């Protein structure tokens, strides 16, 4: 096997998706401990930054310059090269959170057993689903009394619409928790409290009577046998195509079932996959270097106008100092300042392989979705999709004399992908659409810092956007409750107040086809 193939095969690039408080930080920390990146849990900076209010975040960004410490975490584990991409939640939830999912080969979905499938998980799941990537589920907090395991599986199947396959089965929960029956690895992992696991192979289980004859165990075994008969069969093909999710039960905080989960995950998860271009698909093993930019992080410090672009390597080998071309502009650029992310530090990277994420210095030449390639044969990857914003504001310049800078700032920030711009039908007012509040705060901040324009927001609030298939629609059908705007391609988008007004409109106008861009199956 040549070196490139070997490097590709040992890479696992994934994101962890969850609703806030399900245990993402806690689980990530355990993985970093396995990878010897940190010595003990509770030290990841990302933990706190994920929970800061936006204003605090700004202060931190200003002090630290570009903050990327928790954006990508790379480490070695069992001969594998692991790249974990952070998907910020809470107040940091933004389009970047979604875009990050375009750069991974698989995802880990954490579900809190006491809560089941929650709203943010659904949103992130849908984006993974659109890409058909493998999704592995970790049902967390088994040390607490939660929903019944069968009910949780049913919820995953019904709410998310994906087949589930329990890789292990919990025996009891909360105070009655005895451990998990790991059917994939054929061991019983016995719960012995925090940080301690005892592994008993199935063949020896009958000898451990305090387990095998325990009423909780007998009960769980009944459930499990039901599942064996009526449940889905395990299919690695389905898993690899995102049609079946392997489900693991455990407790992140107690470090219970986490390592077994991780080992099984890295065995089964996809290595870096070919990537679709407008013309064909590019194999990671191709000698030609190629990659695409999925995120641009502006420096919040006005004294340093530089930005950092996040590039996913798709094929070939990245070498520092190499000259590449940007597909969109056909311009050549030498990549001298490149960084890799090692959990808490940024380091200059000399080489990177398919599946790796590197940060490259952006003097203002990149846009989100740009393809970079070496050699003469142009590579242009498929566009990164537009994600439906949820939060809308009307925006104007505080000082009308600043119209020109205002226009320039908006144009550039929209092009960069920092925010989405719409124009109100009829009035042509500028309307910004964001996935989270953070995007609006960053926009305001950058307009002031980079273009010297103070902006004024007039809240429109959260809306449900639906694109209209037919552009010759009767515009009189729309009013303030279902506002009509145009996106930057000039296509009509109706912004509905809520589910009710959306349904009401659809009932009244059954002929108008409304498109939900987050529901492409
Ligand atoms: P995040 O918001 O998804 O990153 O969640 P955190 O990792 O910060 O966890 C949220 C809360 O749940 C914290 O108070 C954790 O200590 C707690 N937590 C995480 N994992 C477990 C677990 O396995 N059991 C219990 N009981 N609590 C947990």
TrEMBL record:
Residue span(s) of domain Tr-type G: 9-273
Keyword annotations: Cytoplasm, GTP-binding, Nucleotide-binding, Protein biosynthesis
Single Gene Ontology BP annotation: regulation of translational termination
Subcellular location, principal: cytoplasm
Pfam families tied to this protein: EF-G_D2, GTP_EFTU, RF3_C
SUPFAM superfamilies: EF-G C-terminal domain-like, P-loop containing nucleoside triphosphate hydrolases, Translation proteins
A Gene Ontology molecular function term of the record: GTPase activity
InterPro entries (alphabetical): EF-G-like_DII (IPR053905), EFG_III/V (IPR035647), G_TR_CS (IPR031157), P-loop_NTPase (IPR027417), PrfC (IPR004548), RF3_C (IPR032090), RF3_dom_3_sf (IPR038467), RF3_GTP-bd (IPR041732)
GO cellular component: cytosol
Binding annotation for GTP: 18-25, 86-90, 140-143
Compartments where found: Cytoplasm
Family in the record: Belongs to the TRAFAC class translation factor GTPase superfamily. Classic translation factor GTPase family. PrfC subfamily.
Protein purpose: Increases the formation of ribosomal termination complexes and stimulates activities of RF-1 and RF-2. It binds guanine nucleotides and has strong preference for UGA stop codons. It may interact directly with the ribosome. The stimulation of RF-1 and RF-2 is significantly reduced by GTP and GDP, but not by GMP.
UniProt-recorded name of the protein: Peptide chain release factor 3
Gene name, Swiss-Prot/TrEMBL: prfC
